[in-house]
């Protein structure tokens, strides 16, 4: 069951005592060229999408890994399938990661509360989020200087989509899956309108992210 007071206490506990002067949150080097500033600009949102072969969640966790490794608190909302091993594999610091399991009725409330206290929130909204909730959370992120990474439908400042995906490691029905090669297309607003494509290993055989 979703516990509002517990989430509020968490956000209050991890909230920095002074606002950060850093305009950008760093990302892992292989992802930097997908973003117009080479990092995640505070107060913005990024939508992670994927085709039929998936990869959106992996991309979202990879985006969160850079800020997490640099010392930022991050949170994941509405994703029951995010495990600690997967998060740690992409480079997230588990000591600074909050995973909030909230149903469709509470996702917006949980996200809004966490925006008040953490630098980056990864959220999976329901299939058809209310436009008013989207606008409210986007405005709150701008006001607080947080970054929203959304897996699912969203009117975001930037969009990263896994266009193609193929797993490697199996041969003639033998072996095991070792690494996934993906093509990521980045689009945005303003200077980032022109699409950018990059080939990545997401993950590599060791669970990390690398340029292909």
Question: Can you put this structure into words, describing what you see?
Answer:
- There is one protein chain.
- The protein is an alpha/beta fold.
- The chain has a domain at 4-8 and 23-162: 3-Layer(aba) Sandwich (Rossmann fold).
- It has 6 helices and 11 strands.
- The protein has a 9-stranded mixed beta sheet with strand order 5-4-6-7-3-8-9-10-11, sandwiched between helices. A two-stranded antiparallel ribbon has the order 1-2.
- A hairpin with a 2-residue loop joins strand 8 and strand 9 (174-188).
- The model has no long low-confidence stretch (mean pLDDT 87).
Comma- or semicolon-separated keywords:
212 residues, nine-stranded mixed beta sheet, alpha/beta, 28% helix, Rossmann fold
Residue share in β-strands: 25-35%
CATH domain topology of the domain at 4-8 and 23-162? Rossmann fold
* Radius of gyration, taken over Cα atoms and rounded to an integer in Å: 17 Å
Structural class: alpha/beta
Shape assignment: globular
* Terminal Cα span: 42 Å
Task: Indicate the topology.
Layout lengths: L3 H11 L9 E2 L3 H4 L7 E2 L3 E6 L5 H14 L4 E4 L6 H7 L6 E4 L6 H9 L4 E4 L7 H14 L2 E5 L6 E14 L2 E15 L7 E6 L8 E2 L1
Parallel strand pairs: 3-7, 3-8, 4-5, 4-6, 6-7
Antiparallel strand pairs: 1-2, 8-9, 9-10, 10-11
